[in-house]
Write a structure and sequence with these properties.
Helix content: 25-40%
Radius of gyration: 40 Å
Strand content: under 5%
Structural class: mainly alpha
Shape: elongated
Oligomer: single chain
Largest sheet: none
Number of strands: 0
Distance between the termini: 118 Å
Number of helices: 7
Length: 196
């Protein structure tokens, strides 16, 4: 029984290596930085370096940039020959920004095209729907008012009832109220003020 290669192993990287279209990436992804010196890496090398966080246990570009000089198999997959010259995070982010979403999609479609053609010949092939390709149900599927729930208990008798009287006060009641404080005896603390 054939076992599947483990994530990050040399077997997996060797297995996926021939499927990456380096010539297509170099032709269509040949972007130069807006400022600064030219990159010393080809677009295919930078693309392969971007795949390493998906194929290895390292899931961040910062950690990948630190570990890349120590991992020979990863450098071989990314076609980086010199262990002292590896792309840093700034170059990887600039490459991704310059290629753009459209360029990355073209590369993915080029990689997937031969895989899909061979997968159609497999005996137990299964197709998965991409959720981004499905139209959203924005109109026509609004909730409608629900139907009335049928009664389970019998209705009350159909006898006429007398109109009831409203219970409550309709008139405003007068309540005596006092404003101010308690009366103070004038002898103890009342002094007349004299003006001028």
């Amino acid at each position: 029984m054939n076992r599947l290669p483990v994530t990050g192993s040399n077997e997996l990287l060797d297995l996926l290596d021939p499927y990456i279209p380096d010539d297509f990436i170099n032709d269509h992804g040949n972007v130069r930085p807006i400022r600064g010196p030219r990159w010393q890496f080809s677009p295919a090398q930078l693309w392969r370096t971007h795949l390493l966080p998906l194929l290895t246990p390292v899931h961040s570009l910062n950690l990948l940039a630190r570990l890349l000089p120590e991992q020979r198999a990863w450098r071989d997959f990314a076609r980086l020959r010199n262990r002292h010259r590896t792309p840093d995070v700034r170059i990887l982010n600039a490459f991704r920004a310059r290629v753009g979403v459209l360029g990355l999609r073209q590369i993915n479609e080029t990689i997937l095209h031969p895989l899909i053609q061979t997968a159609a010949l497999w005996q137990n092939a299964t197709a998965l729907i991409d959720a981004t390709d499905l139209p959203a149900a924005c109109s026509g599927f609004k909730k409608k008012t629900p139907a009335l729930t049928p009664r389970l208990a019998p209705r009350w008798a159909d006898a006429r009832s007398r109109p009831g009287r409203a219970v409550g006060l309709s008139a405003t009641k007068s309540t005596a109220s006092v404003c101010g404080g308690a009366s103070i005896r004038p002898q103890s603390c009342w002094y007349r003020w004299s003006v001028g």
